[in-house]
Amino acid sequence: MSGNGKERIAVVGIGNLLMSDDGVGVHVVQALQERNLENVELIDAGTAVLHTADCLRGVDLVVVVDALQAGREPGTVYLMSGSDAVENDYGLSVHSLGLKTALNFLAPGELPAEWTVVGVEPETVEQGMGLSEAVRAAVPGAVRTVENLIEEWRA
Question: pTM of the prediction?
Fold first, then answer.
């Protein structure tokens, strides 16, 4: 989608900080908060994904950042359309699938024109507060991927 810079853009970080790499989406949104992205809504959804529908009402473009198990090396960063991620039955966390459900609560005129998933392959989703080394090292790349996507949308 080619933008004119006036679209409402939101970045939604999803994940459970108590389950190691599952919290990567939240970590990426926290890193983006330090970037002072102009006219971008940063939403730390955590595990309250179904409650994000109200936050996304009237947003044109959405980036979802979440752990995504697709069988590559831990720390691999993926970029795909939201519908492709769901249709290809990747091991998306229940959070990303929950966001698709949340979007169903919006009226047709309130739906985003496009939603994209930036996923990071987790090493572990066991109980624990921190990211694995591989996923921690992937956070800057995921941040750049989100920033590049936003720039592309605004071009």
Answer: 0.86
